[in-house]
Amino acid sequence: MSTPERSDRTRDAVHTVDRYYRKRADLGTSSRALFNKFASHYNLINLLFSLGSGSWYRRRCLRRSGVKSGTTVIDIAVGTGLLAREIKRIIEPDGSLVGIDLSEAMLRKAQKSLRIPLIQGSAEQLPIASASADILTLGYALRHLDNMHLALDEARRVLKPGGKLILIEMSVPATGMLRAFHTIAIGKVLPFISYLLTRDKRARRLMSYHWETISTYPSPETLVSYIASHSFRDVRHETEFRIFHLFTAQKPEKD
Ligand SMILES: C[S@@+](CC[C@H](N)C(=O)[O-])C[C@H]1O[C@@H](n2cnc3c(N)ncnc32)[C@H](O)[C@@H]1O
Fold first, then answer.
1. Would the pTM count as exceeding 0.70?
2. Which residues contact ligand 1 via a Cβ below 6 A?
3. Which ranges constitute the DSSP H helices of 104-176?
4. Higher model confidence: residue 142 or residue 41?
5. Nearest CA to 97 among 118, 82, 80?
6. Cα dist. 236→14, 212, 247 in Å?
7. Which CATH number applies to 30-173+208-250?
8. Which atom of ligand 1 is the closest one to the Cα of 168?
9. Backbone φ and ψ of 251, nearest 5°
10. Whole-number Å distance between alpha carbons of 78 and 72
């Protein structure tokens, strides 16, 4: 049974996350429409956003989280396949990997470079049998979901008992020099560079949207208590430069 202090913290976390999703809904952003529009620019934008560290960092997170050869992995919000590609390298030849995404345009891009089953579907209603995956991954997509409550419940359903949830996200500190620096670098300079490189206003808008979701997203500490509130155990958080975040959590062996 949780202590009163712990349940207060969890309640606050849930409210903070709820507020974020209510604001997003007010903006009228539909992830599917948005990523369908921006799919052609995603890989370039990702390269800029991660300052070139994208595949290296994804691989490092997977290894640190215990992804091994032979595991069964579902990559939710697979996008153009940047995380899935790294998962495939690690789990081959005996493991299996399925990618799921809401956006058909992102899936089409993934299909060009990845030989894995790809399914159009949502994190909130996974088209996957219960207790079927050793590992479930979600890379840079938490802040794009419509409903994280449902997505975490679905993740728990689809994982085998003892299975692991791996979340990779970005955030920036709420205050201070690092915040000020990123507000200019990510919020202003990178959208402009994206436009110069692509000569397409959609690329600039995608960058600005990314910044908006990152800069308004609840803190990593809030996310930790939020994930725990969905009955995951051993919830862990690691950060690099206070920007890149890795969260892992385990589905209990017994409910
Ligand atoms: C920033 S991309 C991340 C792609 C990939 N995981 C990576 O590491 O590059 C976010 C992806 O989340 C997908 N997405 C957004 N909301 C979703 C949802 N509710 N269910 C499934 N996918 C979703 C978008 O279509 C997009 O492809």
1. yes
2. 31, 35, 46, 76-79, 82-83, 101-103, 106, 122-124, 139-141, 144-146
3. 104-113, 148-158
4. 142
5. 118
6. 18, 25, 6
7. 3.40.50.150
8. 8
9. -80, 130
10. 15
